[in-house]
Fold these 2 entries.
Entry 1:
Amino acid sequence: MHHPAAGRPAAPRSVASRRTTSPRDALGRFAAAVATAIGLAGLAVPVVAQQMPRERPAQPQRPASPSAGDLTRYNASVVRVDAKVPSDATSAQSLGPDRVGTGIILDDRTVLTIGYVTLEADAVMVTTASGKRIPATAAGYDHATGFGLVRTVLPLDGKPMPLGDSDRIRDKQRVLTLGHGEPEATEIFVLSRKPFAAGWEYLLESPIFTFPPVNNWSGAALIADDGSLVGVGSLIVNDAAAGQPGVPGNLWVPVNLLKPIMEDLLSKGRRAVGANPWLGMTTETVRGNLMVVRVTRNGPAEAAGVAPGDIVVGVAGEKVADQAEFYRKVWKVGPAGATIPLKLLKDGDVRDLAIKSIDRADHLKKAGGI
């Protein structure tokens, strides 16, 4: 998993060496990234790159959209989610035992959030926009998408937000975002729909990337112009644009991924069938190689002899070049429980290892109730 930043998971960190940069150079790169993002979105927004103040980067002035309307009308649909996780839980070390995020009301007792907020939680509290605090439970979690569902003990006093069609969200489209505690929704725009792969065995083929970045992203609502929910906030990233490095933004998990599994998450706490095989190994691309940087204690990879520093060469007789290709080929072998044949460069030798995969949910501490 990834490490928390200010209570919220941050973008994956590179293990490549870092060099020091002057503030002026950093500001110049920021200005160039802003100009690139605005150009990619096709917006006529003036940005002054050479006359930026030394103290902080200039923020582009975005013209208000005539269709935005009252930006406070969504406030009653967004809640604060507080979760407490046992210190011995698998995710406690990387995500912390006390977590805070945003949730979106789906019905009078169901709240949708990003799953790492409530993962392995044994106590959850939901605070509505009116200030009402309601005890809740972590009802379901899906590792493949990252979604989490919460069920409250008592009915919520807010307004449910309907699920929209996230497949209709396109580049350059204006959308709104709202996180808990914010006075009103904020207008942002879609920068790209491109695959996203991360070291914790996570791959989304078409997430939503937006610009400019917002700092209240964990579980925040991404709202289409018809008022429907189309995405849930997951990360802040530094490569939100397709083919243009260095453009910051946020990643949102599309809600269409929730629709086929929502009943399973509410009734069983997880998807009933089709869970991806989980190996329990974190990888990062280092100097063009897919390197194992961490293995989960008592996980399948550790049991098979995988160790940090090993380099993944192939899966089931096929070469792999990056994380996305690695996951696709692992998942093609079979569902959770399948034996995954890996070829690794280990201590200078190429070795074949067979890893008996499991469902990620089986390795997690079961969520507690009230």
Note: Residues 1-28, 43-64 have pLDDT under 50 and may be disordered.
Entry 2:
Amino acid sequence: MHMDNRPDSGRASTDEPGTRSSRRSPRTRSVLLATGLAAVVISPLAVARTGDALREGKRNGTTSVETEIVGNIRSTTALKGGYVTRQSNLSPDGGGAVYGCRSQAGGSAAKPLPQNPCLRANNLSKGLAFEFNAANGDVAGLFTVGAGGDSKKPFMTNATGVATGLNSDELDNLDASEIIAAARAKANLDADKVDGADASDLKLRWALVDENGNISEQSGGFTIVSKPGINGQPASNPNIYISAGSSLVGKGLSVSTAIQNRIDRTGDGTPDAAFNGDTAIGRCNSAAIACAPAGTENDATLVVRSLVDNGDVASTTRRFYVEVSE
């Protein structure tokens, strides 16, 4: 038989019938202490709830209200400071932040319910709402919209001013010359063409001929065919015959006196200033003009007379500009 040798083993309880003992056994106190310690250890591992601290390196719980981070920090010229939060990734291939959402079309202005964008920068004053800076790259950023294509738009704006520094090479897949051509085709105006050519086909060629009948400057393609004293042309014929290098049929011809105040033609050491003259031009081998010097009676040669007085063949030759509109 087992005997209980504790001092109180034979002592009857002094508690009133139906009541709990006012003393707790050592076993009961140990259970309560262990339970409290477990609660302290387990609580930080529980799923985060509204009002809990954000946990680094872990996914925090889903909230149903906004989490606000509000500061009052002035700007600074220092490398850091001036922003309420700063996110930076020191990895050579990692990003700084990702913002994801599941908003529908329409943006924050959608009706009847706003469809807020995944990211919104709202400046309530007069400054910039955003800045993007690519310190060393060749491309600042990328906009992708679905699979792309003409039905997709990279962005929209209500501002109609010129974007400083923005260079656009094409509009609706057309460059400037194609836009002009399309506008002319739609307008179908007679004034769009001259002799069947539109503005993109029209060209102006020119040459400057001096007092001696030599070309001193030109846009290209002109050569002297005949002048007084060469090609068998008598000195009494003051005309200058010039080849344009191509047919002049249907082309516009013009000539004008080129003034000068620095050339000494008489050899007396004093410039012989010339500010006026008499000029005339025409195409050889035409219904109105027959040209006599060899190699001049053809559609590519023009004849010019530029004297002080074209009615007096003995008068002084004047410098002149000749122009051909093609």
Note: The first strand starts at residue 193 and ends at 194.
